[in-house]
Amino acid sequence: MKFKTWLAAAVVVAFAGAGAWVFLGTGTSVAPASNFVLLDGSTKTTDQMKGRVTLVNFWATSCTTCVAEMPEIVATYQKYKDKGFDTVAVAMQYDPPAYVVNFAESRKLPFQVAIDNTGANAKAWGDVKLTPSTFIVDKQGQIVKSYVGAPDFAELHKLIEKLLAA
Questions:
Q1: Can you give the CATH number for the domain in which 60 is found?
Q2: What is the domain count for the chain?
Q3: For residue 155, is it within any domain?
Q4: Most buried pick, 6, 64, 111, 154, via CB within 10 A?
Q5: What stretch of H or E contains 155?
Q6: Is the Cβ–Cβ distance between 83 and 77 less than 8 Å?
Q7: pTM for the complete prediction?
Q8: Which one of the record's GO molecular function terms can you name (predicted)?
Q9: Is 113 helix (H, G, I), strand (E, B) or coil?
Q10: Assigned domain for 22 exists
Q11: Between β-strands 85-91 and 133-137, what pairing exists: parallel, antiparallel or unpaired?
């Protein structure tokens, strides 16, 4: 009995540790190979992100936190876009494409917006289910920080500045 209890506890700790890495953004890992299908029908790959610091944001039009944080994401993009920074907003599989297009157009989102119509990108990036989920990828293609929920934008800006200077 004690062994089963110990084993169960070890499994829980292992999964919690893996989840903490994905959701709290400790450590680095290579950004997964992904093909983001953009609203204009073109694609952007993780290989194309190399050489730029990139914010990858998984979001949904039905997510109130996502909608509330979007003006901050726009402001962040505007502040750093000319310094080697990029943003890709990835709408979740369940988000109706017409809603995503309407949201992007009505709010004049200045960065690339993708629709993850198969869910493959969300799965590749740690099986994202909670929105917003945001990943910061450095110039070498390493995920250096991830957030679930709206990030602390002052902290995020300091991180972006550090990565841009590297």
A1: 3.40.30.10
A2: 1
A3: yes
A4: 111
A5: helix 153-165
A6: no
A7: 0.83
A8: oxidoreductase activity
A9: strand
A10: no
A11: unpaired
